[in-house]
Write a structure and sequence with these properties.
single chain; mainly beta; Immunoglobulin-like; 6% helix
Length: 116
């Protein structure tokens, strides 16, 4: 069963980005359909967009996007930032793998990679 998780680290503070809203979307045709949502926990993680509250238990193969509400996160911390949101688009190629999509974030830059 495929699943998606994320971990957001605020590299400006050197701490997990707790309380950041995020949505998981799947491309269907030319549109994006929301299939899950969540908020990062105290460790900056959403452990599984496929849990009953966050999204479907099995993600079919396809193109997905996680949209992070970075603007709300920085605003709540009283920090000026450049990116109001970060969207990471990736491909799920197997219905039996786990996909971990981390985000390293500062007020004026971000990076990502395929985690494990």
């Amino acid at each position: 069963m495929s699943s998606v998780s994320t971990h957001v680290l605020d590299t400006g503070t050197g701490r997990p980005a707790a309380g950041m809203p995020a949505r998981l979307l799947r491309r269907t045709g030319g549109n994006w359909e929301q299939v899950g949502q969540g908020t990062t926990d105290v460790d900056g993680r959403i452990k599984d967009f496929g849990s009953k509250d966050l999204g479907p238990a099995v993600l079919p193969e396809g193109v997905y996007r996680i949209e992070f509400d970075t603007g709300a996160y920085f605003e709540s911390a009283g920090v000026e930032s450049f990116f109001p949101e970060v969207s990471l688009t990736f491909t799920v190629t197997s219905d039996s793998e786990h996909y971990h999509v981390p985000l390293l974030l500062s007020p004026f830059a971000y990076s990502t990679y395929r985690g494990s």
